Amino acid sequence: MKWWKKSIHRYGGLQIREDDCSFVWQIPANERCEWVKKTDDCNLDSLIQYAEILFCTFTTEYPALFILGLLVFVLWLLYLFLILGTTADNFFCPSLSVIAAELHLSDNIAGVTILAFGNGAPDIFTSLVADDDEMVIMFTELIGAGIFVTAIIAGSIAIVSPFRISPKPFIRDCCFYIAAVCWITYISQDEIVHLWEGLSFIIFYLLFILTVVAMQFWDNKEERRKARIPALHDPEMLKTFLANQDNEPEVHLPVRSTAFSVKAKLDVAIAAEMANARARGESIEKENNDNESTTSQTDRPDNIYSEFIYDINPISKNDWKKSNLIMKIILVVRSPAMIILQLLIPVVNETAVKNGWSKLLNCIQLCITPTVALFKLDVWRVSFGPLPIVVLFFSLGLIIGVVLFLTTHKDKPPKYHNIFAFLGFMSAMLVVYSVANEVMAILQCIGFASGISDAMLGITLLAWGNSIGDLISNVTIARRGYPRMGYSACFGGPMFNTLLGLGLTWTISAFNHPNYQTKIRSSDMMPGCLAFLLCSLIASFIYLNIVGFIARRSYALIAVSVSQQVLYSYPFVIPMLHFNITNLLGRWYTYARIPNEYETFADCSIVDMSINNNTLELTMSSLNNQTGFVEQWGSFGVPVPRGFSSQYNLKFLPLARQRDSVVTVLNTDYKNFAVIELIQISEDARILQYAWIWSRSRKFHQTYLNRALDVLQRNTINLNCFELVNHDRCPSPDNFLPYEQ
Question: How far apart are CA 314 and CA 321, in angstroms?
Answer without folding.
Answer: 14
